[in-house]
Write a structure and sequence with these properties.
Blueprint (H helix, E strand, L loop, with lengths): L1 H12 L4 H20 L41 E2 L2 E5 L8 E6 L4 H5 L6 E5 L2 E2 L3 H10 L6 E6 L5 E6 L2 E2 L2
Antiparallel strand pairs: 1-8, 2-3, 3-4, 4-5, 4-6, 6-7
């Protein structure tokens, strides 16, 4: 017990949090899943280990006639506004209530503040935080989009934002 507390304190003081360790574990398990999915089953009529490479790896060496799959195409970068949102309360109307605006960030540069409710993004009505995330994800980073917000005072304002790239 004491050893565990000391290890946790050392990790926290060195800047490595539990989330970092969890992300590493999740990343490694996903890597293992990718490796298992890419394994080629051995033929039923072949001798055991006949198609295995000499290095002792579990994966067979590609044969001369086996096509090499092309490398996966990189995904386009995802757009981000640098805001945190939740569903707006039902009585206040539909939209995404901003509970956090990252400084610096595209949302802050556009004039968004904590407490604003995004009701329209890029011409599409926003009914929830999930819809806002979907619309922002469809936006092209670096391209200006218009959004309509309802401030805490009830006033509406049209703003121009330029979503950035998630890194």
């Amino acid at each position: 017990m004491v050893f565990g507390v000391l290890c946790a304190a050392a990790l926290v003081l060195s800047g490595i949090g539990i989330g970092t360790v969890g992300a590493t574990v999740i990343g490694m398990s996903r890597l293992a899943g990718v490796r298992e999915a890419s394994a080629v089953p051995t033929g039923a009529g072949s001798a055991p280990g006949a198609d295995m490479p000499m290095s002792g790896s579990k994966h067979p060496a590609p044969g001369p006639r086996d096509p090499v799959p092309p490398p996966p195409r990189p995904r386009p970068p995802a757009a981000a506004l640098g805001v945190e949102a939740v569903d707006a309360p039902r009585g206040a109307g539909a939209g995404a209530l901003l509970v956090g605006v990252h400084v610096p960030g595209p949302g802050h540069a556009a004039g968004l503040v904590r407490g604003d409710t995004v009701v329209v993004f890029g011409g599409a009505r926003v009914g929830s935080a999930a819809e806002l995330a979907l619309q922002v994800g469809r936006a092209r980073p670096g391209r200006t989009v218009t959004l309509t917000v309802r401030h805490q005072s009830g006033a509406r304002q049209v703003l121009a934002a330029r979503p950035g790239v998630v890194t």
